[in-house]
Protein backbone atom coordinates (compact mmCIF):
# COMPACT_ATOMS: atom_id res chain seq x y z
CA UNK A 1 0.00 0.00 0.00
CA UNK A 2 1.22 3.47 -0.89
CA UNK A 3 1.44 5.42 2.37
CA UNK A 4 0.11 8.97 2.18
CA UNK A 5 0.94 12.24 3.92
CA UNK A 6 -2.29 13.40 5.55
CA UNK A 7 -2.87 16.85 7.05
CA UNK A 8 -5.40 16.46 9.88
CA UNK A 9 -7.36 19.35 11.39
CA UNK A 10 -9.09 18.25 14.59
CA UNK A 11 -9.87 18.93 18.25
CA UNK A 12 -7.88 18.42 21.45
CA UNK A 13 -7.68 16.88 23.92
CA UNK A 14 -7.89 13.44 22.39
CA UNK A 15 -8.78 10.64 24.84
CA UNK A 16 -5.24 9.36 25.44
CA UNK A 17 -4.11 12.78 26.67
CA UNK A 18 -5.94 12.25 29.98
CA UNK A 19 -7.09 15.83 30.40
CA UNK A 20 -9.82 16.80 32.83
CA UNK A 21 -12.35 17.22 30.05
CA UNK A 22 -12.52 15.09 26.92
CA UNK A 23 -15.39 16.08 24.66
CA UNK A 24 -16.97 14.14 21.81
CA UNK A 25 -15.01 16.19 19.27
CA UNK A 26 -11.70 14.97 20.71
CA UNK A 27 -12.92 11.38 20.69
CA UNK A 28 -14.04 11.83 17.09
CA UNK A 29 -10.63 13.16 16.08
CA UNK A 30 -8.90 10.11 17.61
CA UNK A 31 -11.43 7.83 15.89
CA UNK A 32 -10.22 9.21 12.54
CA UNK A 33 -6.54 9.44 13.44
CA UNK A 34 -5.83 6.04 14.96
CA UNK A 35 -6.82 3.79 12.01
CA UNK A 36 -4.76 5.98 9.67
CA UNK A 37 -1.74 5.63 11.96
CA UNK A 38 -2.28 1.86 12.10
CA UNK A 39 -2.15 1.77 8.29
CA UNK A 40 1.25 3.45 8.38
CA UNK A 41 0.28 6.81 6.89
CA UNK A 42 2.31 9.89 7.84
CA UNK A 43 0.15 12.36 9.76
CA UNK A 44 0.50 16.02 10.62
CA UNK A 45 -2.22 16.69 13.23
CA UNK A 46 -3.20 20.29 13.91
CA UNK A 47 -5.78 20.48 16.68
CA UNK A 48 -7.81 23.25 18.25
CA UNK A 49 -7.32 23.20 22.03
CA UNK A 50 -10.83 23.44 23.50
CA UNK A 51 -10.36 26.30 26.01
CA UNK A 52 -12.31 24.81 28.92
CA UNK A 53 -10.18 21.65 28.79
CA UNK A 54 -6.92 23.55 29.24
CA UNK A 55 -5.55 26.07 31.71
CA UNK A 56 -6.39 29.74 31.13
CA UNK A 57 -2.77 30.50 30.28
CA UNK A 58 -2.42 27.73 27.69
CA UNK A 59 -0.01 28.47 24.87
CA UNK A 60 0.20 26.61 21.59
CA UNK A 61 2.46 23.57 21.46
CA UNK A 62 4.21 22.17 18.40
CA UNK A 63 5.79 18.72 18.31
CA UNK A 64 7.59 17.84 15.08
CA UNK A 65 7.82 14.28 16.38
CA UNK A 66 5.18 13.23 18.90
CA UNK A 67 5.04 9.69 20.23
CA UNK A 68 2.11 7.89 21.83
CA UNK A 69 2.63 4.18 22.39
CA UNK A 70 3.70 2.69 19.07
CA UNK A 71 2.45 5.69 17.09
CA UNK A 72 4.58 8.58 15.80
CA UNK A 73 3.14 11.73 14.25
CA UNK A 74 3.61 15.47 13.96
CA UNK A 75 1.33 17.19 16.47
CA UNK A 76 0.38 20.86 16.86
CA UNK A 77 -2.03 21.80 19.67
CA UNK A 78 -3.08 25.37 18.95
CA UNK A 79 -4.81 28.01 21.03
CA UNK A 80 -7.95 29.64 19.65
CA UNK A 81 -6.12 32.60 18.12
CA UNK A 82 -3.47 30.44 16.49
CA UNK A 83 -5.92 27.86 15.13
CA UNK A 84 -8.07 30.58 13.60
CA UNK A 85 -5.00 32.10 11.95
CA UNK A 86 -5.12 30.62 8.46
CA UNK A 87 -1.63 31.97 7.82
CA UNK A 88 -0.32 29.77 10.65
CA UNK A 89 -2.21 26.75 9.30
CA UNK A 90 -0.90 27.38 5.78
CA UNK A 91 2.67 27.61 7.06
CA UNK A 92 2.41 24.24 8.81
CA UNK A 93 0.77 22.67 5.76
CA UNK A 94 3.43 24.04 3.41
CA UNK A 95 6.21 22.49 5.48
CA UNK A 96 4.42 19.14 5.56
CA UNK A 97 3.32 19.11 1.87
CA UNK A 98 0.36 16.71 2.28
CA UNK A 99 -1.39 14.53 -0.27
CA UNK A 100 -4.78 15.37 1.25
CA UNK A 101 -6.50 17.13 4.14
CA UNK A 102 -9.05 15.74 6.61
CA UNK A 103 -11.23 17.93 8.83
CA UNK A 104 -12.37 16.08 11.95
CA UNK A 105 -15.67 17.60 13.13
CA UNK A 106 -17.35 20.81 12.03
CA UNK A 107 -15.08 23.58 13.34
CA UNK A 108 -11.81 22.11 12.01
CA UNK A 109 -13.55 21.29 8.72
CA UNK A 110 -14.50 24.96 8.37
CA UNK A 111 -10.85 26.00 8.66
CA UNK A 112 -9.90 23.19 6.30
CA UNK A 113 -12.31 24.71 3.79
CA UNK A 114 -10.80 28.15 4.25
CA UNK A 115 -7.31 26.74 3.86
CA UNK A 116 -8.31 24.90 0.69
CA UNK A 117 -9.73 28.14 -0.72
CA UNK A 118 -6.44 29.94 -0.02
CA UNK A 119 -4.42 27.16 -1.65
CA UNK A 120 -6.62 27.21 -4.73
CA UNK A 121 -6.33 31.00 -4.82
CA UNK A 122 -2.70 30.71 -5.85
CA UNK A 123 -0.74 29.91 -2.70
CA UNK A 124 0.03 26.37 -3.80
CA UNK A 125 1.70 23.87 -1.52
CA UNK A 126 4.97 22.24 -2.52
CA UNK A 127 3.10 19.48 -4.34
CA UNK A 128 1.96 21.98 -6.96
CA UNK A 129 -1.47 20.40 -7.24
CA UNK A 130 -4.90 20.81 -5.58
CA UNK A 131 -5.20 19.30 -2.10
CA UNK A 132 -8.39 17.21 -1.72
CA UNK A 133 -10.39 17.87 1.46
CA UNK A 134 -12.48 15.37 3.42
CA UNK A 135 -14.83 17.26 5.77
CA UNK A 136 -16.42 15.50 8.71
CA UNK A 137 -19.75 17.05 9.69
CA UNK A 138 -20.01 15.54 13.16
CA UNK A 139 -23.71 16.21 13.69
CA UNK A 140 -26.07 18.52 11.83
CA UNK A 141 -24.86 22.02 12.61
CA UNK A 142 -28.06 23.88 11.69
CA UNK A 143 -30.06 21.65 14.02
CA UNK A 144 -27.46 22.45 16.69
CA UNK A 145 -27.88 26.14 15.89
CA UNK A 146 -31.64 25.79 16.31
CA UNK A 147 -31.18 24.19 19.74
CA UNK A 148 -28.87 26.97 20.84
CA UNK A 149 -31.13 29.70 19.48
CA UNK A 150 -33.99 28.23 21.51
CA UNK A 151 -31.84 28.07 24.63
CA UNK A 152 -30.65 31.67 24.19
CA UNK A 153 -34.01 33.03 23.02
CA UNK A 154 -32.17 34.60 20.10
CA UNK A 155 -31.89 33.60 16.41
CA UNK A 156 -28.72 35.63 15.89
CA UNK A 157 -26.38 32.58 15.89
CA UNK A 158 -28.21 31.01 12.93
CA UNK A 159 -26.42 33.17 10.38
CA UNK A 160 -23.00 32.44 11.88
CA UNK A 161 -23.59 28.68 11.80
CA UNK A 162 -24.95 28.70 8.26
CA UNK A 163 -22.15 30.87 6.90
CA UNK A 164 -19.62 28.36 8.29
CA UNK A 165 -21.61 25.40 6.98
CA UNK A 166 -21.87 27.06 3.57
CA UNK A 167 -18.10 27.43 3.37
CA UNK A 168 -17.59 23.72 4.07
CA UNK A 169 -20.32 22.59 1.70
CA UNK A 170 -18.94 24.63 -1.20
CA UNK A 171 -15.23 23.86 -0.72
CA UNK A 172 -14.88 20.25 0.50
CA UNK A 173 -14.57 17.36 -1.94
CA UNK A 174 -16.19 14.65 0.16
CA UNK A 175 -18.06 14.49 3.47
CA UNK A 176 -18.73 12.20 6.41
CA UNK A 177 -21.74 12.28 8.71
CA UNK A 178 -22.48 10.63 12.03
CA UNK A 179 -25.67 8.87 10.90
CA UNK A 180 -27.50 7.86 7.74
CA UNK A 181 -30.18 10.36 8.72
CA UNK A 182 -27.63 13.17 8.73
CA UNK A 183 -26.16 11.92 5.47
CA UNK A 184 -29.47 12.53 3.70
CA UNK A 185 -29.88 15.96 5.28
CA UNK A 186 -26.37 16.84 4.05
CA UNK A 187 -27.27 15.75 0.52
CA UNK A 188 -30.18 18.20 0.70
CA UNK A 189 -27.83 21.00 1.77
CA UNK A 190 -25.43 20.13 -1.06
CA UNK A 191 -28.30 20.54 -3.49
CA UNK A 192 -29.17 23.90 -1.98
CA UNK A 193 -25.64 25.24 -2.53
CA UNK A 194 -25.33 23.95 -6.10
CA UNK A 195 -23.10 20.90 -5.63
CA UNK A 196 -25.67 18.50 -7.13
CA UNK A 197 -24.88 19.61 -10.66
CA UNK A 198 -24.19 18.01 -14.06
CA UNK A 199 -20.56 17.38 -13.13
CA UNK A 200 -21.30 15.42 -9.94
CA UNK A 201 -24.11 13.18 -11.16
CA UNK A 202 -23.34 9.67 -9.87
CA UNK A 203 -20.61 10.92 -7.52
CA UNK A 204 -20.97 9.88 -3.88
CA UNK A 205 -20.38 13.02 -1.84
CA UNK A 206 -21.36 11.57 1.53
CA UNK A 207 -20.40 8.73 3.86
CA UNK A 208 -21.71 7.62 7.23
CA UNK A 209 -19.09 7.25 9.96
CA UNK A 210 -20.98 6.52 13.20
CA UNK A 211 -19.46 7.11 16.62
CA UNK A 212 -16.87 4.45 17.35
CA UNK A 213 -14.89 2.80 20.12
CA UNK A 214 -11.30 1.53 20.44
CA UNK A 215 -10.72 -2.20 20.76
CA UNK A 216 -9.04 -2.14 24.21
CA UNK A 217 -11.15 -3.14 27.20
CA UNK A 218 -11.36 -0.98 30.30
CA UNK A 219 -9.50 -2.19 33.42
CA UNK A 220 -10.73 -1.30 36.90
CA UNK A 221 -8.01 0.61 38.79
CA UNK A 222 -9.57 1.98 41.95
CA UNK A 223 -12.84 2.19 43.85
CA UNK A 224 -14.75 5.39 42.99
CA UNK A 225 -18.46 4.75 43.78
CA UNK A 226 -19.11 1.83 46.11
CA UNK A 227 -18.53 2.63 49.77
CA UNK A 228 -18.37 6.36 49.03
CA UNK A 229 -20.95 9.15 49.35
CA UNK A 230 -23.28 6.81 51.23
CA UNK A 231 -23.52 4.32 48.35
CA UNK A 232 -23.47 0.66 49.34
CA UNK A 233 -22.73 -2.50 47.38
CA UNK A 234 -26.43 -3.34 47.09
CA UNK A 235 -27.54 0.10 45.89
CA UNK A 236 -28.64 0.47 42.26
CA UNK A 237 -26.36 3.07 40.68
CA UNK A 238 -27.55 5.06 37.66
CA UNK A 239 -24.60 6.79 36.01
CA UNK A 240 -24.42 9.94 33.89
CA UNK A 241 -21.11 10.88 32.23
CA UNK A 242 -20.18 13.88 30.12
CA UNK A 243 -21.57 17.30 29.32
CA UNK A 244 -25.10 18.57 29.88
CA UNK A 245 -25.68 20.17 26.50
CA UNK A 246 -28.64 21.95 24.88
CA UNK A 247 -30.21 18.63 23.94
CA UNK A 248 -30.27 17.27 27.51
CA UNK A 249 -33.79 16.93 28.91
CA UNK A 250 -32.94 17.45 32.59
CA UNK A 251 -36.56 18.10 33.57
CA UNK A 252 -37.69 14.64 32.43
CA UNK A 253 -34.51 13.15 33.90
CA UNK A 254 -35.21 14.69 37.31
CA UNK A 255 -38.89 13.69 37.34
CA UNK A 256 -38.08 10.15 36.22
CA UNK A 257 -35.33 9.69 38.78
CA UNK A 258 -37.29 11.05 41.73
CA UNK A 259 -40.34 9.06 40.66
CA UNK A 260 -38.24 5.89 40.77
CA UNK A 261 -36.58 6.89 44.04
CA UNK A 262 -39.98 7.14 45.70
CA UNK A 263 -40.58 3.46 44.90
CA UNK A 264 -37.10 2.08 45.46
CA UNK A 265 -34.82 3.35 48.26
CA UNK A 266 -31.77 1.61 46.74
CA UNK A 267 -31.67 3.88 43.67
CA UNK A 268 -28.76 6.34 43.51
CA UNK A 269 -27.77 8.76 40.75
CA UNK A 270 -24.08 9.51 40.14
CA UNK A 271 -22.99 12.17 37.66
CA UNK A 272 -19.58 13.04 36.25
CA UNK A 273 -19.31 15.98 33.85
CA UNK A 274 -21.22 19.24 33.81
CA UNK A 275 -21.80 22.43 31.89
CA UNK A 276 -20.02 23.18 28.61
CA UNK A 277 -18.73 26.78 28.69
CA UNK A 278 -18.32 26.98 24.90
CA UNK A 279 -21.88 25.82 24.25
CA UNK A 280 -24.33 25.60 27.18
CA UNK A 281 -23.99 27.19 30.63
CA UNK A 282 -27.66 26.93 31.60
CA UNK A 283 -28.75 23.30 31.51
CA UNK A 284 -26.46 21.90 34.21
CA UNK A 285 -27.08 24.71 36.77
CA UNK A 286 -30.83 24.29 36.16
CA UNK A 287 -30.54 20.58 36.97
CA UNK A 288 -28.53 21.32 40.13
CA UNK A 289 -31.19 23.78 41.32
CA UNK A 290 -33.89 21.11 40.97
CA UNK A 291 -31.80 18.60 42.90
CA UNK A 292 -31.11 21.03 45.76
CA UNK A 293 -34.84 21.49 46.36
CA UNK A 294 -35.59 17.76 46.21
CA UNK A 295 -36.42 15.52 49.15
CA UNK A 296 -34.01 13.01 47.57
CA UNK A 297 -31.06 15.41 47.26
CA UNK A 298 -28.87 13.08 49.31
CA UNK A 299 -29.29 10.34 46.67
CA UNK A 300 -27.78 12.51 43.93
CA UNK A 301 -23.97 12.50 43.79
CA UNK A 302 -22.94 15.32 41.44
CA UNK A 303 -19.17 15.11 40.96
CA UNK A 304 -18.77 17.59 38.13
CA UNK A 305 -15.87 17.22 35.72
CA UNK A 306 -13.29 14.71 36.96
CA UNK A 307 -9.93 13.45 35.69
CA UNK A 308 -10.35 11.46 32.48
CA UNK A 309 -8.43 8.50 33.90
CA UNK A 310 -11.06 8.10 36.65
CA UNK A 311 -14.12 7.95 34.38
CA UNK A 312 -13.82 4.28 33.27
CA UNK A 313 -13.82 3.16 36.92
CA UNK A 314 -17.25 4.76 37.22
CA UNK A 315 -18.47 2.75 34.20
CA UNK A 316 -17.25 -0.46 35.79
CA UNK A 317 -18.89 0.15 39.18
CA UNK A 318 -22.30 1.47 38.06
CA UNK A 319 -25.34 -0.68 37.23
CA UNK A 320 -26.62 1.28 34.22
CA UNK A 321 -25.61 4.31 32.18
CA UNK A 322 -28.40 6.75 31.36
CA UNK A 323 -28.72 9.03 28.35
CA UNK A 324 -31.65 11.39 27.93
CA UNK A 325 -32.39 13.62 24.95
CA UNK A 326 -34.97 16.11 23.90
CA UNK A 327 -36.84 15.01 20.80
CA UNK A 328 -35.33 17.64 18.52
CA UNK A 329 -33.65 17.59 15.10
CA UNK A 330 -30.15 17.90 16.56
CA UNK A 331 -30.58 14.57 18.37
CA UNK A 332 -32.57 12.81 15.63
CA UNK A 333 -29.77 13.46 13.14
CA UNK A 334 -26.89 12.87 15.56
CA UNK A 335 -25.46 10.12 17.77
CA UNK A 336 -24.01 9.52 21.26
CA UNK A 337 -20.36 8.85 22.05
CA UNK A 338 -21.16 8.10 25.69
CA UNK A 339 -23.28 5.09 24.70
CA UNK A 340 -20.28 3.62 22.87
CA UNK A 341 -18.16 4.19 25.99
CA UNK A 342 -20.71 2.26 28.05
CA UNK A 343 -20.83 -0.56 25.48
CA UNK A 344 -17.05 -0.82 25.75
CA UNK A 345 -17.30 -1.19 29.54
CA UNK A 346 -20.14 -3.71 29.43
CA UNK A 347 -22.38 -1.20 31.23
CA UNK A 348 -26.08 -1.67 30.55
CA UNK A 349 -27.53 1.30 28.63
CA UNK A 350 -30.86 3.03 29.15
CA UNK A 351 -31.64 5.87 26.74
CA UNK A 352 -34.47 7.93 25.36
CA UNK A 353 -35.13 6.63 21.87
CA UNK A 354 -34.45 9.61 19.61
CA UNK A 355 -31.24 9.15 17.63
CA UNK A 356 -30.36 6.52 15.03
CA UNK A 357 -27.98 4.71 17.38
CA UNK A 358 -30.64 4.03 20.02
CA UNK A 359 -32.95 2.67 17.31
CA UNK A 360 -30.20 0.27 16.21
CA UNK A 361 -29.30 -0.62 19.82
CA UNK A 362 -32.88 -1.40 20.76
CA UNK A 363 -33.47 -3.54 17.66
CA UNK A 364 -30.31 -5.54 18.45
CA UNK A 365 -31.33 -6.12 22.08
CA UNK A 366 -28.13 -4.37 23.18
CA UNK A 367 -29.75 -1.84 25.50
CA UNK A 368 -33.03 -0.41 26.81
CA UNK A 369 -34.97 2.64 25.62
CA UNK A 370 -37.82 4.79 26.88
CA UNK A 371 -40.09 7.34 25.24
CA UNK A 372 -38.53 10.84 25.04
CA UNK A 373 -40.12 13.40 27.35
CA UNK A 374 -42.03 10.69 29.25
CA UNK A 375 -40.95 10.81 32.91
CA UNK A 376 -43.43 8.10 33.88
CA UNK A 377 -42.04 5.66 31.31
CA UNK A 378 -38.51 6.48 32.48
CA UNK A 379 -39.39 5.88 36.14
CA UNK A 380 -41.04 2.56 35.31
CA UNK A 381 -37.99 1.41 33.34
CA UNK A 382 -35.67 2.39 36.20
CA UNK A 383 -37.79 0.55 38.77
CA UNK A 384 -37.90 -2.55 36.54
CA UNK A 385 -34.14 -2.57 35.96
CA UNK A 386 -33.37 -2.02 39.65
CA UNK A 387 -35.41 -5.14 40.43
CA UNK A 388 -33.92 -7.35 37.68
CA UNK A 389 -30.12 -7.42 38.13
CA UNK A 390 -29.65 -10.61 36.09
CA UNK A 391 -31.27 -9.04 33.02
CA UNK A 392 -29.26 -5.85 33.50
CA UNK A 393 -26.00 -7.78 33.58
CA UNK A 394 -26.94 -9.85 30.52
CA UNK A 395 -27.90 -6.75 28.54
CA UNK A 396 -24.60 -5.10 29.49
CA UNK A 397 -22.71 -8.08 28.08
CA UNK A 398 -24.84 -8.05 24.92
CA UNK A 399 -24.11 -4.35 24.47
CA UNK A 400 -20.38 -4.95 24.85
CA UNK A 401 -20.35 -7.69 22.21
CA UNK A 402 -22.49 -5.57 19.91
CA UNK A 403 -20.28 -2.49 20.34
CA UNK A 404 -16.99 -4.25 19.66
CA UNK A 405 -18.45 -6.08 16.67
CA UNK A 406 -20.11 -3.12 14.95
CA UNK A 407 -18.44 0.10 16.12
CA UNK A 408 -14.68 -0.40 16.28
CA UNK A 409 -12.65 2.56 15.02
CA UNK A 410 -11.28 0.65 12.02
CA UNK A 411 -14.65 -0.72 10.95
CA UNK A 412 -16.48 2.60 11.22
CA UNK A 413 -13.82 4.58 9.29
CA UNK A 414 -13.41 2.12 6.40
CA UNK A 415 -14.68 4.68 3.86
CA UNK A 416 -12.10 7.25 4.98
CA UNK A 417 -9.29 4.69 4.86
CA UNK A 418 -10.28 3.75 1.31
CA UNK A 419 -10.41 7.39 0.23
CA UNK A 420 -6.96 8.38 1.52
CA UNK A 421 -5.40 5.59 -0.57
CA UNK A 422 -6.61 7.43 -3.70
CA UNK A 423 -7.62 10.94 -2.54
CA UNK A 424 -9.10 13.13 -5.22
CA UNK A 425 -11.00 16.36 -5.72
CA UNK A 426 -14.71 16.26 -6.50
CA UNK A 427 -15.81 16.17 -10.18
CA UNK A 428 -16.96 19.79 -10.03
CA UNK A 429 -13.62 21.09 -8.77
CA UNK A 430 -12.66 24.17 -10.77
CA UNK A 431 -15.99 24.15 -12.62
CA UNK A 432 -18.45 27.03 -12.65
CA UNK A 433 -21.50 26.37 -10.49
CA UNK A 434 -24.47 28.22 -11.88
CA UNK A 435 -26.81 28.47 -8.97
CA UNK A 436 -27.79 31.66 -7.11
CA UNK A 437 -25.65 33.83 -9.46
CA UNK A 438 -25.57 37.23 -7.68
CA UNK A 439 -26.43 35.60 -4.38
CA UNK A 440 -23.31 33.43 -4.66
CA UNK A 441 -21.12 36.49 -4.96
CA UNK A 442 -22.90 38.21 -2.08
CA UNK A 443 -22.42 35.22 0.20
CA UNK A 444 -18.71 35.21 -0.59
CA UNK A 445 -18.39 38.64 1.04
CA UNK A 446 -20.01 37.74 4.33
CA UNK A 447 -16.94 36.44 6.18
CA UNK A 448 -16.43 39.71 8.04
CA UNK A 449 -20.07 39.82 9.14
CA UNK A 450 -19.87 36.24 10.39
CA UNK A 451 -16.66 36.99 12.28
CA UNK A 452 -18.22 40.01 14.01
CA UNK A 453 -21.31 38.01 14.96
CA UNK A 454 -19.15 35.21 16.36
CA UNK A 455 -17.27 37.73 18.50
CA UNK A 456 -20.58 39.15 19.74
CA UNK A 457 -21.80 35.67 20.73
CA UNK A 458 -18.55 34.90 22.58
CA UNK A 459 -18.67 38.25 24.38
CA UNK A 460 -22.27 37.64 25.44
CA UNK A 461 -21.41 34.18 26.77
CA UNK A 462 -18.49 35.61 28.73
CA UNK A 463 -20.66 38.32 30.30
CA UNK A 464 -23.35 35.79 31.24
CA UNK A 465 -20.72 33.61 32.94
CA UNK A 466 -19.32 36.63 34.80
CA UNK A 467 -22.78 37.69 35.99
CA UNK A 468 -23.55 34.19 37.22
CA UNK A 469 -20.28 34.19 39.16
CA UNK A 470 -21.09 37.55 40.73
CA UNK A 471 -24.56 36.40 41.73
CA UNK A 472 -23.25 33.21 43.34
CA UNK A 473 -20.71 35.21 45.37
CA UNK A 474 -23.30 37.74 46.53
CA UNK A 475 -24.56 37.90 50.10
CA UNK A 476 -28.20 37.49 49.03
CA UNK A 477 -27.42 34.22 47.27
CA UNK A 478 -25.50 32.93 50.30
CA UNK A 479 -28.33 33.88 52.68
CA UNK A 480 -30.83 32.14 50.37
CA UNK A 481 -28.79 28.93 50.39
CA UNK A 482 -28.25 29.16 54.16
CA UNK A 483 -31.98 29.48 54.79
CA UNK A 484 -32.77 26.66 52.34
CA UNK A 485 -30.31 24.29 54.03
CA UNK A 486 -31.67 25.28 57.45
CA UNK A 487 -35.20 24.64 56.26
CA UNK A 488 -34.28 21.14 55.09
CA UNK A 489 -32.60 20.33 58.40
CA UNK A 490 -35.67 21.57 60.28
CA UNK A 491 -37.94 19.38 58.14
CA UNK A 492 -35.69 16.43 58.85
CA UNK A 493 -35.92 16.94 62.61
CA UNK A 494 -39.70 17.22 62.42
CA UNK A 495 -39.96 14.04 60.37
CA UNK A 496 -37.64 12.28 62.79
Structure in a nutshell:
The chain has 496 residues and is of the alpha/beta class.
What are the defining features of this structure?
alpha/beta; six-stranded parallel β-sheet; Rossmann fold; 3 domains; 47% helix; 496 residues
Give a structural overview.
This protein is 47% helix and 16% strand. The chain folds into three domains: 5-212 and 410-438, Glycogen Phosphorylase B (Rossmann fold), CATH 3.40.50; 236-407, Rossmann fold (3-Layer(aba) Sandwich), CATH 3.40.50.2000; 446-496. An eight-stranded mixed β-sheet has the order 3-4-2-1-5-6-7-8, sandwiched between helices. A six-stranded parallel β-sheet has the order 11-10-9-12-13-14, sandwiched between helices. The protein is built from 20 helices and 14 strands. The chain is of the alpha/beta class. Residues 482-496 have low confidence and may be disordered.
> How many separate helices?
20
Spatial strand order of the main sheet = 3-4-2-1-5-6-7-8
- What is the first-to-last residue Cα distance? 74 Å
Give the strand content: 15-25%
Number of domain modules: 3
Q: Regarding CATH, which class of the largest domain? A: Alpha Beta
* CATH architecture field of the largest domain: 3-Layer(aba) Sandwich
Q: Give the overall shape.
A: globular
**What is the typical, i.e. mean, pLDDT?**
89
Largest sheet: 8 strands, mixed
Amino acid sequence: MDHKKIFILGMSPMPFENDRKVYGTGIRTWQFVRPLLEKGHRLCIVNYAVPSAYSSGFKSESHEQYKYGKYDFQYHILSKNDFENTGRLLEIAQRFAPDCMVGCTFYPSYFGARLKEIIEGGQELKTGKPIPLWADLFGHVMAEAQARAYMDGDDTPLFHYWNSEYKILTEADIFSCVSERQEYSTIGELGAVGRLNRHTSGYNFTNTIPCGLPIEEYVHKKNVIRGKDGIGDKDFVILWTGGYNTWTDVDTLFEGLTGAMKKNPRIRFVSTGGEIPEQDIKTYPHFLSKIKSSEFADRFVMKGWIAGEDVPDHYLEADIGINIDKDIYEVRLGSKNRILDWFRAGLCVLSSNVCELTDIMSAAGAGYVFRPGDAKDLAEKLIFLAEHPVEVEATGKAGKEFGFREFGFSRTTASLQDWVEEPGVSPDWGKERKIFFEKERALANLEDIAKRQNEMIEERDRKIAELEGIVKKGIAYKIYNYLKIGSRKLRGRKQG
